[in-house]
Amino acid sequence: MESPVSTGESPPAGRPGSALPLARAAPTERRDAARNRVRVLAAAAELFAREGVEAVDVRDIAHAAGVGIGTIYRRFGDKGSLVAALLGDRERDLQDRLLSGPPPLGPGAPPRERLAAFLHALADLTEENLPMLLASEGSASGARYRIGAYNAWRLHAAMLLEQAAPDLDAAWFADLLLAPLDAARYRHQRRELGVRRERVAANLTEAVDRVVAGAGRAPPSG
User: Fold this and answer.
1) pTM to 2 decimals?
2) Residue 24 belongs to a domain
3) Which helix (H) or strand (E) holds 100?
């Protein structure tokens, strides 16, 4: 989340040069190190999906990947950093699609449509990586807002909201639209309340429509 990279969109008024901040590209690795990284991440992803993040030990990942445990500690440091690396790869894939993928997720569609498509894609990422997101976002109070791609998602949503509804408090409403995709809240909706995945997507679209349609109305007095 350190290097600002242009989204290919015109910056919203009052924020010249605004851009989607992408994670830095990984430094060039030796071929064997790059191979080991792919094997470790693939093994970790399979074990996390099958056993759950908490149940998997670094030794399990090393054994499944066919590498020494020292290789994992030297490359990643600990299991939390490995989780972050795996999530980072998947978040960068979504960021790439936001920057240069086909519309409506990528450039070329009206901002309201792009915003709805973005929230749908982010819901898919949350659904497919929920155990890792729960471990990452639950690592400390407020971790969701300090690690991972949240600041990029918030900036992208705010930029599209400013384009769709210039009078809106875009940064505030960006947080509002992203709130249902907090990992713990998403799990509560899906697992405990039984909200279907399709209903989550439909509700996100309706939320975008209502926020954009309501922009410009006079705020309540008092």
Assistant:
1) 0.80
2) no
3) helix 79-100
Tokens 């949240």 belong to 150
Distance (Å) of CA 20 to CA 15, 28, 51, 134, 208: 12, 23, 34, 24, 20
Q: Which residue range(s) make up the domain with 208?
A: 86-215
Q: Which of 76, 164, 182, 84 is nearest to 126 (CA)?
A: 182
Per-residue pLDDT of the chain (222 residues; tens, 9 = 90+): 333 333 444 443 333 334 565 555 555 557 888 899 999 999 999 999 899 999 999 999 999 999 999 999 999 988 988 999 999 999 999 999 999 999 999 999 999 999 999 999 999 999 999 999 999 888 788 888 887 689 999 999 999 999 999 999 999 999 999 999 999 999 999 999 999 999 999 999 999 999 999 876 655 554
Q: How many domains does the chain have?
A: 2
